[in-house]
Design brief:
With about 230 residues, the protein is α/β, with parallel strands linked by helices. The protein has ten helices and eight strands.
């Protein structure tokens, strides 16, 4: 029996976009350059899926002894944005195998496809351009951290996606992402289904902490659930 879903909200990096964790590596680099020793695993554990200012805040909070961190976060975030612009200019961005065909098949079956992300609009749109994806053709909408007041784990970006495509019941929404916070976002929005995918930032054990409906090896496994 296929699930009744009218909208799938996909995370970007690590879920639909394979950019080899360049954003989290850049977060790590910016924090390290400021004099704080954190690992990529620290960044993925405490920052994955979050708006990046918040990600830096949470990494520093959990991995250093700093008490007053707001000013240093602002400095690191500014450095991060500059470093990321350089990194993305030279980055070969790809999607995961089968993702574009999945988008086409979902849309043919009257299931809306929306991307959402903890990135700002400039970064997210830059990724779309590199992939040659366009709103209205490849996907139905893009929602970024710039579009809402509250980032993940709040459900604001999912509610925004629903508003854009005209879906009123969140039980008709499936949220999929590669990190625990994607699942928490889906639960916050009362989505009918939440799914973690093991192609990105976090492993099965980390994602399972949020109790998703499904954990997938790849996005193509959504076919068996929806099509």
């Amino acid at each position: 029996m296929k699930e009744e879903i009218k909208l799938v909200v996909f995370d970007m990096a690590g879920t639909t976009v394979n950019e080899n964790n360049v954003v989290y590596k850049t977060v790590q680099k910016a924090i390290n350059n400021a004099g704080y020793n954190v690992t990529l695993q620290d960044v993925l554990k405490y920052g994955a899926g979050k708006e990046k200012h918040q990600a830096i805040t949470d990494v520093l909070h959990n991995c250093t002894n700093l008490i007053k961190i707001s000013k240093i976060v602002d400095v690191i975030f500014t450095s991060f944005k500059s470093e990321l612009e350089i990194a993305y200019a030279n980055l070969d961005v790809k999607t995961f195998e089968g993702t574009e065909q999945l988008f086409k098949d979902l849309r043919k079956n009257d299931i809306k496809v929306v991307l959402n992300t903890g990135y700002d609009a400039k970064t997210a749109n830059g990724l779309l351009q590199k992939l040659d994806w366009t709103v209205g053709e490849t996907i139905d909408a893009l929602v970024t951290a710039d579009d809402v007041k509250n980032g993940r784990p709040a459900g604001d970006m999912i509610f925004k996606a629903m508003e854009i495509v005209g879906i009123k019941d969140s039980k008709l929404v499936l949220k999929v992402g590669d990190s625990k916070i994607d699942i928490e976002e889906g639960i916050s929005a009362n989505c009918g289904i939440t799914a973690g995918v093991l192609t990105g930032a976090q492993d099965r054990e980390q994602i399972q902490e949020a109790n998703p409906t499904y954990i997938l090896e790849s996005l193509t496994e959504l076919r068996a659930i929806l099509l």
